Task: inverse folding
């Protein structure tokens, strides 16, 4: 869920090497002691991976690691082959990766490549050895586990399926939808384990959207229910053993765990119960906290090995890579947060709805200022959007918040249904576009314009600077009277241009830079900045290429566009999105429908699944960084010259 | 959910007029007797509306009518103003309309205009007086009711919110998602009533996807639970009274009802428990059964009034309008059913998944032939699609079935997630396009291409004849190796052309009719047939207009297209879909990106929300019938001549 964009830790970073890990895996003696030593070693390595990547989920990697370690060391394939384990929430991936590396199931050198191109993606992908399914979109895991069990039955394949869910994740309706037939079909090969660490992205589950009596809920759906301390290997082992004996029903183990388990100041139990925000859900720690955590993990590990009379673990270390220097960055989400706070004051019927992403989507100030008009819905996007629709029918002006990837897809039918009521609802969809590339394709939203673009009456808009964010929000609230999709790129960006302070007019763009040979037309800070830099480079190639900011994603004014491009031969449309359904489709529509001859359109967009990695690598992979854009423009223009010649 | 396309009843049709209805509403004496007489009168009128429309939902109109009548006569606004009632399932609309007409809340003459243009839509729309929200997409009702309560609280508006759900509808995850915060926020102003009529679209809830202990489920979510006989007014009244006294929690009344209540042979209790199909969920009855039902309703009504010593009800009557004569029709869904059955035999890993629409989506023969490879998921599209994805990972070849409107939107994120696994899953999406227009915009799928078109690797295809259906299914199963969207128009269609029996090639269309002046390019039986007829008419205007069948919706071969249009000046792209995201976008993309001069593109597509009504009226309203197409082509060509001149 939440996926904060942070900085990598600097200074010395520490990890445990392959041979030391092997030694732990092969320790003779009591299983719980072995599991404990290995799990803590994996905590250290997971922390290394996150510190180096600059983002990732510590809290739930740590809360789930004891369970995952025990499963892999002691349970999977114990009575034969074919057992599988996967995590439905998926953001505990660093912990799982660390374990699979320790077990030799993943090449060791991947430890240095979390969230890097061709490395280990932020959320699981089947392209990584050992990952049985793609997760990261919450709520799908039990459905998937059922599909696996049914396929096993059809093909006569043996094996049990273990799926881990979060507790916040249980707010997703698909979870409850999926329980019904699991019970009716008697899928006893399926064990779900709830990593009940009591916190979700923002804060306590209890505060966000309490799940009440979880055991009663699962029982009422016909499941066998166990409860265990998820950090007590003997209790856990016993619960898993009992599950295997049920034989008629699917089972769930509600495992009580501690978010951030293993590092005292990261453990949620060290927080006051009214803390507004847990700091270790996603994102890397500060360098100081990283070092404190390493010291704590290592000294506990040493104490354990000392007590067992075996050699202490040896650490490896290296200097963190130097981050590239950067100038001042524009941050659209904080700008949005300020704008939303101001709008809450001037717009009495404005209601803010959240789906467990208060910090990531910029609602903190609005919530603090006007708590009576803030509705926390939990991880329940469908419910949020339908509630918002009903509020709009009653005269409120609701603004729904989530990441673009989830809002456009999980609540797709609900957004349409609201639109059929011709009401006014604003969807503030952040984390839009290819970047950040770290979380991977479950979070990289490059099809949201397509997914909502044909909703009747909906206008989609993407501001490209902090200044334009406020104007775009005001337009959505005060100028427009229907559904609006406010698409926010969350990644900080060095923006080399200024957006002129002119009123927004539907379908009309503004010229950021003039060009006589060709024009880039695009939206959002990321690609407009790359285009600007490409245009500067292209001067060396003898080409004067302009840049046009067209914030409107599914409406383009024909009259404006045809006039804007009248003097150029080539237009390069830039979509931080797939070509299908992107803004370029609207530009193509205007050109193809025009009676007069239009310039030739070249579509630059995200091709194929979005790559996971850092910004520079991901843009380069998709041919969308300034350097690639320059090459592509030169090629297009020179090919065209050849053809003309 | 299910919405079968039937024929209107012929012969004499009967209804009860406005003054007689008013007499019943104003009857002095015992409330239950009055409610009974009015509810039965409304049954007769609802039946009239459905018989005349040729489609509509008898079963749940009848099961819910006693509850709805009691609520409106005795409960709403009893303690003040501001109470609202709506149905979440929405397909019980004919019953609700009949009641609102009886209460004078809707103009009486609407009784003759169910599912007609500017009449009463098949599912509720806020454009109709008294309809408080748009429903018909299942599972949203409780979320909406919560939004209303929260808005009431914010604005200080008094009133309770009553929402009716189906029982099959409870299979939708959004229902359970929505229960959580209703309890946490103590929304005691909210009463949900489950019309527990034991049957869903296809057959018994128990057989489809049993809901187990419903009371325990709701209780485990923190709701106050009542149970009552939904046809016993005193029991119902007492349960409603207790709900109003709860004061701290939302309440649910599980109302045991009988599907088809009021007409002996329509009542589900008259069925064997192993019947494959309940016949009165959707669609009009036969003329003979219509008359038997009328006789039964009227004679019971007479017996009741006789017993009370009041005058018998007087009926009004008229001859049913004569349906337009039609020639042989092509029916894509039965053709699909046959093709799927054959594919089940030749493809050992093919698995068929259904979401409670076996008949509507053509799975009956496959289910009968290969029950071991048929998975009934209930009304749980998200769960179905994620299960299918996991099965594909295990080497199965799953085909998921639902209506295009639900599959593309409710399971949108799940379809994407599957695609990120690069697996092979087929989505058979029927009821696609503008027609049938009767069910209304919740069911008219004119944005599905947009909603799924940008899913990486997904190919969307729309066959236009029965023969092409089999070829398209075979292509999806045997030629393609990724996700495929098989878009089926369910409405029967007189198809004036034949599709040449040539192998399908991705992105390549076929010429149905040659033309030197212009070309129609489109897909699917409905619009290609209209285009064909328009082309015949256009000969009289001196224009030779060709027709091209391009079944590929999100992939077009540039080389093929540019060659196909080389000789013409105008191309008219036809989308049985909104322009945004439709096939025309892909054509525009090719034209705009071409180095050579392309013909001018004119987009004919569905503008605005799809109109509800019969086929002829709906096509005309959207300018997509042959007559309108002819006018639009003439205008486009002559305008262009003027400009050139």
Result:
């Amino acid at each position: 869920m939440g996926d904060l964009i942070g900085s990598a830790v600097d200074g010395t970073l520490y990890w445990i090497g392959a041979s030391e890990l092997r030694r732990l895996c092969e320790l003779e003696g009591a299983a719980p002691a072995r599991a404990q030593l290995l799990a803590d070693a994996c905590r250290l390595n997971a922390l290394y991976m996150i510190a180096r990547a600059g983002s990732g989920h510590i809290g739930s990697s740590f809360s789930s690691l004891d369970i995952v370690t025990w499963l892999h060391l002691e349970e999977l394939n114990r009575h034969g082959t074919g057992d599988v384990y996967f995590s439905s929430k998926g953001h505990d991936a660093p912990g799982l990766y660390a374990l699979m590396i320790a077990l030799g199931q993943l090449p060791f050198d991947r430890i240095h490549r979390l969230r890097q191109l061709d490395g280990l993606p932020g959320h699981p992908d089947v392209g990584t050895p050992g990952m049985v399914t793609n997760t990261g979109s919450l709520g799908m895991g039990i459905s998937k586990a059922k599909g696996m069990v049914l396929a096993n039955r059809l093909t006569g394949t043996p094996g049990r399926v273990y799926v881990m869910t979060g507790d916040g994740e249980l707010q997703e309706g698909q979870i409850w939808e999926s329980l019904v037939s699991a019970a009716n079909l008697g899928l006893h090969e399926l064990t779900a384990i709830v990593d009940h660490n009591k916190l979700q992205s923002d804060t306590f589950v209890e505060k966000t959207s309490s799940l009440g009596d979880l055991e009663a809920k699962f029982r009422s759906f016909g499941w066998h229910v166990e409860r265990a301390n998820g950090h007590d290997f003997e209790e856990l082992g016993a619960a898993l053993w009992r599950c295997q004996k049920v034989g008629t029903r699917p089972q769930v183990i509600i495992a009580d765990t501690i978010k951030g388990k293993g590092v005292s100041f990261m453990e949620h139990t060290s927080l006051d119960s009214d803390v507004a925000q847990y700091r270790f859900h996603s994102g890397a720690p500060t360098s100081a906290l990283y070092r404190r955590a390493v010291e704590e993990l290592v000294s506990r590990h040493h104490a354990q090995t000392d007590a067992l009379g075996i050699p202490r673990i040896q650490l490896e270390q290296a200097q963190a890579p130097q981050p590239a220097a950067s100038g001042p960055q524009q941050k659209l989400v904080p700008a949005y947060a300020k704008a939303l706070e101001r709008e809450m004051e001037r717009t009495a019927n404005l209601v803010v709805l959240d789906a467990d992403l208060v910090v990531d989507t910029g609602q903190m100030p609005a919530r603090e200022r006007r708590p009576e008009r803030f509705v926390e819905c939990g991880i329940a996007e469908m419910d949020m959007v339908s509630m918002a629709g009903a509020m709009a029918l009653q005269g409120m002006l609701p603004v729904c918040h989530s990441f673009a990837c989830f809002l456009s897809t999980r609540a797709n039918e609900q957004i349409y249904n609201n639109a059929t009521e011709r009401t006014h609802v604003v969807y503030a969809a952040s984390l839009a576009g290819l970047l950040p590339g770290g979380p991977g394709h479950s979070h990289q939203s490059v099809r949201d314009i397509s997914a909502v673009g044909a909703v009747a009456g909906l206008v989609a808009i993407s501001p490209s600077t902090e200044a334009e964010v406020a104007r775009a929000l005001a337009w959505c609230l005060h100028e427009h009277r229907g559904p609006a999709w406010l698409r926010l790129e969350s990644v900080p960006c060095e923006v080399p241009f200024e957006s002129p302070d002119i009123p927004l007019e539907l379908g009309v763009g503004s010229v950021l830079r003039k060009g006589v040979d060709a024009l880039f037309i695009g939206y959002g800070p990321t690609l407009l900045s790359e285009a600007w830099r490409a245009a500067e480079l292209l001067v060396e190639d003898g080409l004067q290429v302009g840049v046009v900011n067209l914030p409107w994603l599914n409406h383009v004014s024909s009259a404006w566009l045809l006039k804007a491009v009248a003097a150029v031969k080539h237009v390069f449309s830039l979509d931080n999105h797939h070509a299908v359904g992107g803004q370029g489709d609207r530009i193509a529509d205007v050109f193809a429908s025009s009676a007069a001859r239009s310039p030739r359109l070249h579509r630059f967009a995200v091709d194929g699944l979005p790559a996971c990695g850092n910004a520079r690598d991901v843009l380069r992979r998709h041919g969308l960084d300034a350097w690639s854009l320059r090459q592509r423009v030169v090629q297009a223009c020179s090919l065209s010259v050849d053809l003309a010649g």
Observations:
- Chain B touches chain A through 113 residues (CB under 8 Å).
- Chain B has a mean pLDDT of 95.
- Chain B has 22 helices and 18 strands.
